[in-house]
Amino acid sequence: MYPLQRLWHLPLDMWNKLPLRIDLPIPYLQIDIVFVNDPGQIKILRGDADCGRMHQVPSEQQPGWAHYFFKGTRFHDTAHDAWFIAMEGQEGTADYERRKECVAACLKNEWYSSDDVKKVAELLKSGASDEALAEAMVPIINSRFLQGHKPIPGSIAQDAKAMLNSPVDMLKPGAYEKAVAAGRNVIGFCSASEPIKGLKEVDVAHNIGAAANEVVKTLATLRDNATCKDLDELFTRSENTPTPAVPRVALAASKFGGLLSYPAKPGKTVFFLNISKAAGMERSLFWTFGTGVPERSCPFKPFMMSFLKDVQKQLQP
Ligand code: HEM
Description:
Elements lengths: L2 H13 L4 E5 L6 E6 L2 H8 L4 E2 L11 H8 L4 E2 L4 E2 L12 H14 L4 H12 L4 H13 L11 H9 L12 H19 L7 H24 L6 H4 L11 E5 L19 E4 L1 H8 L2 H4 L12 H15 L2
Parallel strand pairs: 2-7
Antiparallel strand pairs: 1-2, 3-6, 4-5, 6-7
Helix pairs in contact: 5-6, 5-13, 6-7, 6-9, 7-8, 7-9, 8-9, 9-13
The protein binds protoporphyrin IX containing FE.
Protoporphyrin IX containing FE binds next to helix 4 and helix 9.
């Protein structure tokens, strides 16, 4: 398709209420991104085997922009070419089932202590910074993933905070270089501290990053809404969901049941599914912690919701 034809599709797609597709045939970068905001359209993609997880496409065949972006995130360990569990297909060589079960079992078998709850509540009451909250939360959640429950230094929590959360973060001057260097430190720490059997370094690095960013964001929301009676409702409001969107990649030249006006490019067309908007519309925590269904949802959900309820009790005057 010629560049002008791609442009012509934009108003037509808008008229037909199709997802916004930005298709810029820039050599190497290969930008072809589809922003899917409608929960109904996300459900269509969720059920389509031709819409896959990023690592169902070998890293070197992914579009240049994705290669560049994920290198600065907690989702890809570029040095070992290893991807976090959520980016893996269910079947294949990446051992998805065993790794996911391992994270879920660690979270289920070992909860948190009442001292952990008190400590975090005190930090919230005293108006502690996000950095201080990250330094407290990272070891509470993540030491369990390291052999011998090794402590996790504050500098690693800060490095994890510096990693990219969305492509927009790359626009801040210096942020990308800082994120890549920070990611290297976090992965280096995870390697040296030996993840428990069954997990890869990138799994532990991701979990540290999620604690330093998403969990801290969630706690700050709780602090601002300490008297809220319904935490499920609070954390399905679009403005309060810590993960705005999740990526998927086209595995075939499909139009996905008419969602695209011209076929996707296999391995190159990337979808961003706006789960945050869906959470607000459908009021389900399975959108806050996944794509609206229990299957492949975040195994941290029960831990997080229980921890929030316990901290909230401590915040009451
Ligand atoms: C408030 C904090 C968190 C939120 C809102 C959150 C949200 C999510 C979301 C939306 C997904 C689905 C990703 C996708 O479909 O592409 C996911 C997956 C996952 N999350 Fe979390 N997460 C949080 C913290 C954590 C933490 C701290 C851990 C580990 C300790 C964790 C472990 C996982 C795992 C292993 C998956 C992959 C599940 C699968 O693919 O089957 N998450 N999370």
